[in-house]
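Technical appendix A lists one of the benchmark inputs used to test multi-chain prediction within the project. The record comprises four sequence entries:
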Amino acid sequence: MLESLFLNLGQHDSLSDDEQSLLGNLMTGERSFAAGQDIVASGSRPAYSTLILDGLAARYKVLADGGRQFTSLQIPGDFVDLYAFLLKTMDHGVIALSPCRVILADHSKLRSITERAPHLTRLLWLDTLIDGAIHREWIVAMGRRSKVSHLAHLFCELFVRLQVVKRTNGMSFHLPVSQAELADVLGLSVVHMNRVISALRNSGVIAWANHTVTILDWQKLQQIAEFDPTYLSMTREPR
Amino acid sequence: MLESLFLNLGQHDSLSDDEQSLLGNLMTGERSFAAGQDIVASGSRPAYSTLILDGLAARYKVLADGGRQFTSLQIPGDFVDLYAFLLKTMDHGVIALSPCRVILADHSKLRSITERAPHLTRLLWLDTLIDGAIHREWIVAMGRRSKVSHLAHLFCELFVRLQVVKRTNGMSFHLPVSQAELADVLGLSVVHMNRVISALRNSGVIAWANHTVTILDWQKLQQIAEFDPTYLSMTREPR
DNA sequence: CGTCGGGTTGAGTCCATTCAACTTCGGTGG
DNA sequence: CCACCGAAGTTGAATGGACTCAACCCGACG
């Protein structure tokens, strides 16, 4: 059941059997959320962190004028709020974009892992560091890429991340978001988001219908995006 | 000499004498960099992480068209690349924006801290988590704030962070960057950056001359920025 | 069959960009 | 001492990108 977590952590360094059972003991209390529901509320002080087993979720902030900005997309095998273990107070919310099945990690148990299992601690720390690396890539995309390139980059990133946890189907993956939600990822208006999507479609590198994205030309998509997966740390080495 | 590091880590939770001496033993090998020099090169695999003792630095990425985007600003007491300890390969560069004095932390020593000093490990982990929280705030600013509000938010953030490490002077702080560099923070053209600065100046909330920013109306600046410092985790509690 | 949420398209406005000129100021050399 | 120079800041004008407002299409669903 924790296969996606093992795939996610295990891609960076090997996970011993002991560590796998520590993780199995750590994760308890499965829950489900409907699309649109808050998984974690802004301002709360959760006593546990949440791992996604199935579904798509996103971190977000809402401004005074009602504008919403997503700051990340979370897929199966991702902790949506592992940092809350040390940051304590959530400064933003986490919402389910599709029906989500999740499982929880008590902060008291996480703490005891940091006291007793240094290598596993480093792997969990690493998970939050990759989170940060993705954030930096998003900042670059928002600041200096064209909107089409930004969208292409997002698709590259999602495809590669989903591949790790075996949620791709050939060159296709399921992306259960509306254009309005995607606009809140890129920081655009809905109308303009629609035009950017059309532009990428018309260039013939992707198809997107029925909430399924198909990459028609992976090479060209990467070129448009200037995608370099280094930031995802997808190499297995001692950490 | 490590006072700014102690101030930085110590604002979140208390640092024991043992931990302070562990940190003193960790940080060795002082170096200096001139403004414009790379402190860490993109693509490198450093064997140590770098702490700023004095000066201003920034993480950045450069795109194929020559566009540059800063993804963070680093002040005294900040590790510029603590995550390299586990990420291994730098996917971006770190540049000195003003003359910088730094000191290094061998990754081998960091590793032994994770093996022997769990509480200090958590505080170092926390440092990288706040890094991530700042990234998320930048993403929100880039995506959904007006440019004036974004700039105001940046000034609020810098002021608060500099205050923690005692680098403010009343309501003023030193900001040794050109408007072109600031444009690479906000993702704007130089010309427009100049106009956004003018707008903020004309609203009477800040003055900026001789590389020194003075906050004239802290209340109103925070309003314009919708600044909420929660994300900086500036409370002392057990971590 | 009507309604509703999501997607698409057109038109006009505003924001941000580029290109270009001009100013200010500190430094440097005649 | 001042004339010159270059880097940084400022301003104007024109272009193009992104926004809003509005209409319309379409498929799912009651």
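Residues 147, 188-189, 191-192, 195 of chain A lie near DNA strand D (CB under 10 Å from a C1'). Chain A touches chain B through 50 residues (CB under 8 Å). Comparable benchmark entries are summarised in Table A2.
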